[in-house]
Design goal:
homodimer; alpha+beta; 2,3-Dihydroxybiphenyl 1,2-Dioxygenase, domain 1; 21% helix; Glyas_Bleomycin-R_OHBP_Dase (chains A, B); metal ion binding (chains A, B); metal-binding (chains A, B)
């Protein structure tokens, strides 16, 4: 059902500085950048490795673009750091239905748009041992690779 | 230098309950369990996917076994949740030397024992955008696979 660690989402105050840190310290390169207006973030995806389901694992660096975005609220409460983790699936709606049926609150009534044309949904962190958890169905046009 | 997301470390109060959550909710299975006396934790490794460097990505669930362990202090401050992230390398001492030379404080003078016979070192979270970051050199006897 879930076949990879799709990404680790990291909240930061300055995306350009954080991208520079990951590039200059570890050699990780930005695969993709975009603004997600719905979530109120500017983000960069850094591909770390390929995975044996034919996709890849990324770091997702997130900078809020408005003060009422969830990532802005996270930064105000916690400071910079890991914001969420995401598992990859080839059927996000199906996986969310199964997981919801196992007693975990699914935060989105229907999957919504994630990075690089993916479909995503979030699970309630209080039902997941304090871990904000996302499910990701990669865009099959290959942009996720 | 760093070729995979090796694991995501998650702090929990009850390892058995948390293992059960990950198994029953997502179908993830425990690959390995051990006690790390030095770090004061009981831990379970759940293999999520293979990686294109020939190794794998895991969740590492961590329960403190004494109150003065770093994970116990983390739980007291933050509650349950993501504790650290770890990148895999084939040379942890070399990678730590390079990264230390780029201005990040390396928390261990020499690599120490990690999960499944690996060698590990930690980087200071204040130098890594609030993210406690670990470097992992897998045990080459194949236990990491």
């Amino acid at each position: 059902m879930l076949t990879r660690i799709d990404h680790i989402g990291i909240a930061c105050r300055n995306l350009d500085e954080t991208v520079r840190f990951y590039r200059e310290t570890y050699g990780f390169e930005v695969t993709h950048e975009e603004v997600n207006e719905e979530q109120g973030v500017r983000e960069a995806m850094l591909r770390i490795n390929g995975t044996d389901d034919g996709k890849a694992s990324y770091l997702q660096l997130l900078e809020p673009i408005r003060e009422d975005s969830p990532v802005a609220k996270f930064l105000a409460r916690n400071g910079e750091g890991v914001h969420h983790i995401a598992f990859g699936t080839d059927d996000v709606a199906g996986a969310a239905a199964v997981i919801g049926g196992r007693g975990v609150r699914v935060l989105d009534a229907a999957p919504r748009k994630g990075s690089m044309g993916s479909l995503i949904t979030f699970l309630h962190p209080k039902d997941c041992g304090g871990v904000l958890t996302e499910l990701v169905q990669a865009n099959e046009d290959g942009a996720q690779h």
